[in-house]
Structure formats: structure tokens, C-alpha cells
Amino acid sequence: MKNLFSVFFIALFALASAQDSKESKETANRFFYELTFKPKKDSAKMDKVITILDITDKNRSIYQDYTVIAQDSIMKVEIEAMQKAGIMKDLSKTIKTPKISARIYKSYPGMKVQYVDKIASGFTPANIGYSEDLKFNWNILNDKQKIGEYNTQKATTEFGGRKWTAWFSTDLPFQDGPYKFFGLPGLIVKIEDDQKNYSWVLQGNKKVKDYTEYSYIENLMQAKGGKVNELSREKFEKTFSDFKKDPFASIRPMMTQEMLSKTVPGMDGTVGDMVKKQEKQYKDFYSANDNPIEISSAQDDKKKK
Q: In this model, does residue 20 exceed pLDDT 60?
């Protein structure tokens, strides 16, 4: 859920690399959803984050947290100044960290869903993921409502152990929605579960001409994670769970005592101090969220039936 790399490693890679990856031109319709969610089951505290659904002209959609991408212009200025000066800077004072690290891809028209997240593989990120052929059993109702500027209609479904109510608009001709949701005769404008643990509301949209799903930081660091290591969902959840328990497991053997004791100009403390601080932040973050969107997976639902 947090960005895989600490701001320390961002700074390190920024000084070492100034390359921009070249990709074929792609355009996208970007839909902004405000997600309001409850991170802890036993707490009334709610959190908010802006997420985006990018529907591209290459027959796919990508859903992700907007936090890092929203800071692209600020980070570009900071990093170019750092490269010019040749001195590292603690970017934790500048960059906001995302609340969601996963990306969800849907391929059109079949709507195969792929869930992808990053784990550490030494000092580089590695993508792991699983794919699903989801079928939502929507019950479309006659209720209509205006949400913002959109005329919407009500639909309900059950998914991931929760009951969901959606409002979709045929004014937006995309049978898609935030997270894994899709399959209504128009774009989902609002969707929430009956306990209001998770609620997405469309805030607006814009056209993106030179589209890339990756932030400036990921492109600069060449930290896209490479080809996705496709796993079964069970294996994915086990692998990601192990990573959350010990995020630096693959990095620790590579850090010599000499390396850990080094101080870095522009950063507070030694490399070892920063690694310890970042490790604690990861563990605190993951333990602060015990209320997933899906209480049960599609596989569990099938077993019950």
C-alpha cells in the first residue's frame, strides 16, 4: 500500500539515473474517484484518497492511487535540482506517500482482471500479480439519482464477502468502474458497500494525451517492476503477506556493515538509521490496515457454493 521504495532509495536512484523511458504514444480518458474507506475494522476513523481509472485507446483500463502521479511536476523540479547539485535530499519532507500500491488492469472487451503489486527484489522492485475472470451478478433497479453532473441508475451486487450498491451513468459509455468493478451499461459513478467501509465517488475526468500509467519517479528510476510474475491468487497473497511482515528481507543480506555505517550528504543519520526508520514505517503502515476491500476471494465464494 505504501510506495515500495523509501525516499532514500528514490534519491539514490535519482542521482544515478536521468534517463526517461520511451514508450509508444497512448491516450486515455482519466476518471478521478475519491475513495473514502475504513482502514481498521474496530475503529470509526475514516481515510480518503484520490484514485484514478484510466481507460486508454489500447483496449485496456488501469486503476491506481493518484497520490504520486499528482506530484510529478513537483518531484521533477526537486530531482533535477538534486541531480544538478549532486547532493541528495530527504524527499520525505516533500513527497506524500500513496495509500494504495496495487494497480488493477482490465483488458477490453473480455474484461480479464489482473491485480498487480510490487515487492522488493534486492534494491529493485518486482511485480507480482494474479488474474481473474470475474462475473458480477448485477441487479439493475429502476431508482435514478443525479450525482454531481451525472444522471445515474441504481444496481446492486455481492462481491468479496460484501454487499454493494452502485450508481452508473449511460451518459459515460464505458462499462467499467473503480477497483475491479465493471459490467454495467455505463460507467460506475458511485459504489459503496452496505456497511460503508469502502465508498468511491466520481469527481471528474480529463483527457490525457501522452499517457503513461507510471509516475515520473518510476520512469526515472526505471522502477516499473518489469514483467509481472503471474501467480495463483493463493500464492500471491502468501508472497505479499511475507513481504509485509519483513519488507527488507531481500535487501538486508546485500547491506554490509560498512555500507550501513556510511553517512550521506543532505540526509540525516547513517544509511543504517534510514533503513531502520523506513522498515518501521512499513510495518506500522501495514499493521494499521486490517480491513481489506475483499473479505473473501472469488475462490472462497466458489468453495462456499
A: no
